[in-house]
Write a structure and sequence with these properties.
Layout (H helix, E strand, L loop, with lengths): L1 H8 L5 H24 L4 H16 L5 H33 L1 H25 L2 H29 L5 H5 L1 H16 L11 H6 L2 H7 L10 H7 L4 H12 L1 H11 L16 H6 L4 H15 L3 H14 L4 H28 L2 H25 L4
């Protein structure tokens, strides 16, 4: 058995694994990161458009607080869509497969992009809200299926490096959105609708890859046992002949690969009742809560406003916002290196400590901030 595991971890992956990581990240995670960052730069122009649209259509003039509430809804409805989508994301992954779920998410992204592109010409704030909501649904599917898909394709010794493609793609998407949101590009009164829908380019470029990307072999074995040969073909295309020899070697000491042990799936209620799942569930929920409450959403949604209130003019605030995105992207590129050389637990605690420290610093600065 030890010899077999050694064979598995020493597999020389073919370039197809990297190509799969690249195209799936390009068409899914980068658009999600784009969604997170794009509303920051052209926020002033979108608010003005919302004010004028509602006034012209219904004759209602929103005051400052009402306009801020509407803007908060436009920003938050993307996250609301994510919460709704998360309720059926796992079911889609198990029912239709990881690859098909990613394709469905791309269709949702395209629908969202079309709505965001047309909202200005249609003079409809509702269309803007609907486009953001559908984007949130797509984000839930992507953040569930994408890491699952890549990890199930990768060998043991590369799961850490491959697993960071999701967060790396989101960081790159945020950085690109901040470039597109500059006044010199699309962040102006005439072109902001192009800015918020530009992510469709990435989805369109990645769509043809669906026809040659492979389904997860683990999903094929667990949900379509008759496709055992298809699963082996996937493994062969990714790993080469060594993986096939490993599979046949394993079959001599374990049950057939088409009949995996403990393949029964648990419902959410069964997971909550299972004592063995209690501690892993607490850890997952704690990490997710720390991630969502670390303050990064406030930074990327309102950093331009924060810099403006600090006394910087609008142009400088947008450039400083881009600097934040570049720093975030640079750290994302370091992640594969760090994951392969340092323990995960140490990286988690270091990251959480850094988030806690900087969040206190940001809160202190916002409380006692004086324009320079």
């Amino acid at each position: 058995m030890e010899e077999n595991l050694k064979d598995l971890t020493s597999i020389n992956c073919r370039p197809l694994l990297f190509v799969t990581c690249f195209f799936t990240t390009l068409g899914t995670c980068i658009p999600i990161g784009y969604f997170l960052g794009i509303m920051n730069g052209p926020a002033v122009f979108i608010k003005d458009w919302c004010y004028l649209t509602i006034k012209n259509k219904s004759g209602v003039s929103l005051n400052t607080s009402q306009l801020e509430i509407l803007w908060a809804l436009i920003v938050a409805i993307f996250l609301i869509g994510g919460v709704c989508g998360s309720l059926f994301a796992a079911w889609c992954c198990n029912k239709f497969g990881r690859k098909s779920t990613l394709l469905f998410s791309k269709i949702l992204l395209m629908a969202s992009g079309v709505l965001l592109l047309l909202c200005r010409n249609l003079d409809s704030v509702f269309v803007l809200l609907l486009g953001r909501f559908i984007g949130g649904l797509a984000a839930a599917l992507i953040t569930t299926a994408h890491p699952m898909y890549l990890l199930e394709l990768s060998p043991v010794d590369r799961k850490g490096s491959v697993g960071v493609f999701t967060s790396l793609g989101i960081a790159i998407g945020i950085c690109i959105s901040e470039v597109m949101g500059l006044k010199q590009v699309f962040g102006n009164p005439e072109s902001w609708h192009y800015a918020i829908s530009f992510f469709m380019i990435f989805v369109l470029v990645s769509l043809p890859s669906y026809f040659w990307l492979m389904e997860s072999p683990q999903w094929l074995l667990n949900h379509r046992k008759q496709d055992c040969l298809a699963a082996r073909k996937v493994l062969y295309n990714i790993y080469g002949s060594q993986s096939i020899s490993f599979i046949y070697k394993e079959e001599t000491t374990q049950p057939p690969i088409s009949e995996p042990k403990n393949s029964k799936e648990l419902s959410l209620l069964e997971v909550l009742r299972d004592r063995k799942s209690f501690m892993p569930l607490v850890l997952v929920l704690t990490l997710q809560a720390c991630q969502q409450l670390c303050g990064i959403n406030a930074v990327f949604y309102y950093s331009v406003s924060i810099f403006t209130e600090a006394g910087f003019d609008e142009d400088n605030a947008n450039w400083m916002n881009l600097g934040c995105g570049l720093l975030n992207c640079a750290i994302g590129f370091l992640t594969p290196f760090l994951m392969s050389r340092f323990p995960r637990r140490l990286l988690l605690f270091t990251s959480l400590t850094g988030c806690l420290t900087t969040s206190f610093g940001l809160a202190f600065a916002l409380k006692y901030m004086v324009s320079y």
